[in-house]
């Protein structure tokens, strides 16, 4: 089982390493739609330490920089070095940004060290989703927020998800909004806000969950 998970993780990283040069162009409309939804909800204070656990090519980090959002530190984490390389090119030498390549399931950050943690369009890729939620809970400060946006395995999206799974090599384990809420509660989070919508044939959800004080 452990060997299968390891292979699957490498395939996911390999798949995104190969996709990195064209990711922003190929998925432009999808990225803009999902990030706009997050930005409508996202709250960041000037003293906040923010962690994006699967930052990809850094669309969010660049948006915040370009639009003058204030924060203390923003860490971009991802298992794909090529995706992170694109992110580094985008934000340049701005010292508020840091880069790490941990698996979201086990990250080398201190406990209670971030005010906001974000996972955008990546939850379906995690081979151990419970471990990721536990890890996010560990690194968040009490009172901190976790923003989780991903595919919503409900209704018409079920067969779409099946086809994506057949035609891609990366890990695909999509959950529904209800299943995501259940998992978050199981690991101690309180659900603060939630939303769901369609973008073309994608069924999506966004949850803002908090770690109790
Ligand atoms: C669809 S991309 C989303 C990137 C970015 N958040 C966005 O919305 O444009 C999914 C990202 O999750 C990363 N990823 C997949 N599994 C991961 C894991 N276990 N730990 C950290 N990152 C992971 C991939 O390398 C990829 O960059």
What does this structure look like?
The protein has one domain: Rossmann fold. Helix 5 (81-91) links the parallel strand 2 (73-77) and strand 3 (97-100). The protein has a 7-stranded mixed sheet, with helices on both faces. It has helices at 2-19, 23-26, 28-41, 59-66, 81-91, 129-139, 157-167, 177-186; strands at 49-52, 73-77, 97-100, 114-120, 140-151, 190-199, 202-210. It has 213 residues and is α/β, with parallel strands linked by helices. The radius of gyration is 16 Å and the shape is globular. The structure holds S-adenosylmethionine (SAM). S-adenosylmethionine binds next to helix 1.
Sequence-ordered SSE layout with sheet pairings:
Blueprint: H1 2-19, H2 23-26, H3 28-41, E1 49-52, H4 59-66, E2 73-77, H5 81-91, E3 97-100, E4 114-120, H6 129-139, E5 140-151, H7 157-167, H8 177-186, E6 190-199, E7 202-210
The chain binds S-adenosylmethionine (SAM).
S-adenosylmethionine (SAM) binds near residues 55, 78, 79, 125 and 126.
Order of helices and strands: HHHEHEHEEHEHHEE
**Which ligands does the model contain, each kind named once?**
S-adenosylmethionine
Mean pLDDT: 94
From the 3D coordinates, which CATH architecture would you assign? 3-Layer(aba) Sandwich
- CATH homology-level superfamily: Vaccinia Virus protein VP39
Rg is 16 Å
Uncertain regions: pLDDT < 50 for 5+ in a row? 1-5
Main β-sheet description = 7 strands, mixed
Assigned CATH class: Alpha Beta
Total number of helices: 8
Q: Give the DSSP E fraction (strand runs of 2 or more residues).
A: 15-25%
Instruction: Indicate the CATH topology.
Output: Rossmann fold
What is the number of E strands?
7
Structural class: alpha/beta
First-to-last CA distance? 36 Å
């Amino acid at each position: 089982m452990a060997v299968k998970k390891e292979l699957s993780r490498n395939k996911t990283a390999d798949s995104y390493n190969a996709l990195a040069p064209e990711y922003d162009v190929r998925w432009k409309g999808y990225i803009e739609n999902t990030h706009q939804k997050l930005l409508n909800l996202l709250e960041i204070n000037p003293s906040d330490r923010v962690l994006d656990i699967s930052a990809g090519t850094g669309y969010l980090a660049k948006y915040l920089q370009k639009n003058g959002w204030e924060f203390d530190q923003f860490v971009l984490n991802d298992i794909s070095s090529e995706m992170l390389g694109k992110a580094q090119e985008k934000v340049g030498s701005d010292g508020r940004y840091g880069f790490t390549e941990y698996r979201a399931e086990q990250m080398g950050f201190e406990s209670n060290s971030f005010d906001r943690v974000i996972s955008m369009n990546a939850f379906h890729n995690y081979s151990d989703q419970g471990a990721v939620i536990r890890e996010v809970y560990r690194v968040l400060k009490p009172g901190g927020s976790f923003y989780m946006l991903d595919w919503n395995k409900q209704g018409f999206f079920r067969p779409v998800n099946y086809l994506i799974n057949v035609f891609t090599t990366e890990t695909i384990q999509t959950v529904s909004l209800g299943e995501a809420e259940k998992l978050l509660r199981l690991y101690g989070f309180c659900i603060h806000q939630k939303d769901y919508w369609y973008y073309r044939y994608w069924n999506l959800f966004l949850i803002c969950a908090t770690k109790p004080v």
